[in-house]
Write a structure and sequence with these properties.
The chain is mostly beta strands. Helices cover 2% and strands 42% of the residues. The strands form three sheets. Strands 3, 4, 5, 6, 7, 9, 14, 15, 16 and 18 form a ten-stranded mixed β-sheet that branches. It has a six-stranded antiparallel β-sheet with strand order 8-17-10-11-12-13, with no helix packed on it. It has a two-stranded antiparallel sheet with strand order 1-2.
Length: 298
């Protein structure tokens, strides 16, 4: 509301002035971002979901990913899972994306046209409908999630990644912040698929058991911070504040807004191709998420 300031002299009413409301507080500044800021600028938080309540913020995240069709994706990559909002559990300060056996659902996107698992997905994509807006997208910044991977189990695939917020279904780039195959929670695959058609590929990893400059350890034993610094001239990957590697192919770096996706897949085609598919179809596993944050330089 506007506040009226009445200015009164000893002789008469001189003026009535309109004073604007106080400005909102500036966004949170974080000294915890491991990526250096450009000289004269500083990191400010522009997105955060801390999962401190009994549910996630529906204005920030959705259990759907629409592949820019404006609908809720059931499955992709010929896995066994069908994504369901019921598989997202928020309590004790974290979100759990739970993959569990479920009654068979016929769906051509699943392996052998049958989904036999339900799993969880969270994204900043559109909720549904081709005219809806992305819940959140950003161009350049530092994005980080604190994750605890599922325990070592073949067939459960963790993905924390970004795609362009482009409603034409033309994904010219993809940033994989971390991908982890269930049989090997020590290798965190960090990859960029660049412009113009996702073929300009850069990988931090040199095979399994290699995370660039970052530690090779079991990331299912405790929480770790997986982050990415995306800027016009470079993309750099971080784990627990350590820079694992980077690419500086500026011509191939995405320069438009991107959306964020977190999901737990089951029996992904990559795992099957490596002979590490789901061995026991009765198991339940979860990906635990402590927070999801984005910082940008201002």
């Amino acid at each position: 509301m506007k506040k009226l300031l009445l200015v009164i002299s000893a002789l008469a009413l001189v003026a009535v002035a309109c004073v604007p409301p106080p400005s909102p507080p500036p966004p949170t500044t974080s000294a915890g971002v491991p990526a250096p800021a450009t000289a004269g600028r500083q990191w400010r938080q522009t997105f955060a979901e801390e999962f401190n309540g009994s549910d996630y913020d529906r204005n920030k995240l959705t259990p759907c990913f629409d592949w820019n069709y404006g609908a809720c994706t059931g499955s992709f990559n010929q896995g066994r899972e069908y994504y369901s909002a019921n598989q997202i559990r928020v309590n004790n300060g974290t979100a759990k994306l739970v993959a569990a056996p479920a009654p068979v659902m016929n769906n051509p996107a699943c392996r052998n046209d049958q989904c036999t698992y339900r799993s969880g997905l969270l994204s900043t994509a559109r909720r549904s409908g081709n005219d809806s807006n992305y819940l959140y997208s950003f161009t350049y910044g530092y994005v980080e999630a604190r994750l605890k991977l599922p325990p070592r189990t073949p067939g459960f695939f963790t993905a924390f990644w970004m795609l362009p917020a482009n409603p034409t279904y033309s994904y010219r780039s993809e940033i994989d912040i971390v991908e982890a195959l269930g049989y090997d929670p020590t290798t965190a695959y960090m990859t960029y698929h660049g412009k113009p058609d996702r073929t300009a590929r850069h990988s931090v990893n040199n095979g399994t058991g290699n995370n660039g400059a970052c530690a090779v350890k079991d990331y299912s034993q405790s929480f770790s911070r997986f982050g990415l610094d995306w800027q016009p001239d470079h993309i750099a990957w971080y784990i627990d504040g350590v820079k694992c590697g980077e690419t500086r192919n500026a011509a191939a770096i995405e320069n438009g807004p991107m959306q964020i996706i977190l999901n737990l897949m089951v029996d992904h085609s990559w795992e099957r191709d490596w002979g590490q598919g789901l061995a026991d179809p009765t198991l339940t596993r979860q990906l635990e998420v402590d927070y999801l944050r984005v910082y940008q330089q201002q």
